[in-house]
Amino acid sequence: MKIISILFVLALTLFANFEDGKKVFDTKCISCHKEYIPMNSIKENFFEKQNSLLNLKAPSANMIVFAMFDSSKKIGDENEKEFQELEIESFLKSYLENPDRFNSICDDNILPFYDNKASMKGQLNDEDYKNLTSYFFGYKENIDKKDTLKYSNYSEEQEKEILKKATIENKKIIIYATSESCYFCKKMDREVFKDISIRKMLDENFIFLEIDMDKFSLPFNLQKEYKRLTPSFFFLNSNAKLISQYPGAWIKSDFMNILKENK
User: Fold this and answer.
1) For 156-196, how does the pLDDT look when each residue is reduced to its tens digit (9 = 90+)?
2) How far apart are CA 123 and CA 108, in angstroms?
3) Where does the record place the Cytochrome c domain (predicted)?
4) How far apart are CA 173 and CA 170, in angstroms?
5) pTM of the model
6) Can you give the chain as a three-state secondary structure string?
7) Is residue 137 one of the residues assigned to a domain?
8) How far is CA 194 from each of CA 71, 87, 101, 112, 172, rounded to the nearest angstrom?
9) Can you tell me the mean pLDDT for 104-133?
10) N or C end of the chain, less CB within 10 A?
């Protein structure tokens, strides 16, 4: 029981550090660095459109995480997590306080598109650098997952935020009803949602929301429409009006046709 308690406290501490790090990113970094941009859009922006599509002046959080952990300039050894964490923390403090383009971890082909980084010396303390490192580590653990919004303590404010986003971006909304115990949900996650063409279609045309039905009810008054079958997919417009619903699992080609019919 004592070991379980220690692990629980450790998990809470790591989560708290991640949340504190996200606050640092949201307050100190978000003015220059977007949190997430789909990788397909990033590739198109830089390698096909010469940055005219997104006009980025700095890398997004997922680009930074890729550079830190997976690029040719990655920092530290992923098999030595504690040392890697210290190295990343040291790099962040060194680079953010004394920016040097020659010491950047960004792709050399993309770096010329960015503005020169201004020093943040005095704006972040040692605890901020530690928490920011925890944020990037936590972000790394989820970077390969679908671009989804997941609910906790669901509120009307979240509904308004989603509808506003759908209106601004001129996108439809997909509500994906799933559960941890759903075999066919996991099959679709593995065989459909990881497909590049499916992800591109979702990124460009929809706001995709995944709801764990073991924990939450459906938003936008959809619970009355739910047939208690996972997976189920609900398509809404930016006014939260239900357009169509598709209970059950789908193979890649059929699901792509569904997306095309509803985009």
Assistant:
1) 777 888 888 889 889 999 999 998 889 999 899 888 988 87
2) 27
3) 16-140
4) 10
5) 0.54
6) CHHHHHHHHHHHHHHHHHHHHHHHHHHHHCCCCCCCCCHHHHHHHHHCCCCCCCCCCCCCHHHHHHHHHCCCCCCCCCCCHHHHHHHHHHHHHHHHHCCCHHHCCCCCCCHHHCCCCCCCCCCCCHHHHHHHHHHHHHHHHHCCCCCCECCCCCCHHHHHHHHHHHHHHCCEEEEEEECCCCHHHHHHHHHCCCCHHHHHHHHHHEEEEEEECCCCCCCCCCHHHCCCCCCEEEEECCCCCEEEEEECCCCHHHHHHHHHHHC
7) yes
8) 21, 31, 34, 31, 20
9) 91
10) N
Kindly report the number of other CB atoms within 10 A of residue 93's CB atom.
20
Instruction: Determine the residue type at 38.
Output: P
Q: What is the pLDDT at residue 200?
A: 84
CB of 178 within 8 A of CB of 210?
Answer: yes
Give me the pLDDT at residue 1, please.
39
Contacts of residue 253, Cβ cutoff 8 Å, sequence gap at least 6: none
C-alpha angle with apex 174: 170 to 176, nearest 5 degrees? 160
Nearest residue to 148 via CA among 193, 179, 183: 193
Judge whether residue 152 has pLDDT over 50.
no
Q: Can you read off the two tokens belonging to residue 121?
A: 């010396």
Q: Is residue 11 located within the same domain as residue 112? A: yes
Domain with residue 184: its CATH number is: 3.40.30.10
Q: In the chain, how many domains are there?
A: 2
Beta bridge mates, 233 = 176, 246
> How far is it, in rounded angstroms, from Cα 245 to Cα 226?
9
Tokens 């383009």 correspond to what residue?
A: 101
Q: CA 45 to CA 53: how far, in whole Å?
A: 5
Q: Could you tell me the pLDDT band of residue 14, with boundaries at 50, 70 and 90?
A: very low
What domain range is 75 assigned to?
A: 2-142
Q: How many residues appear in the chain?
A: 263
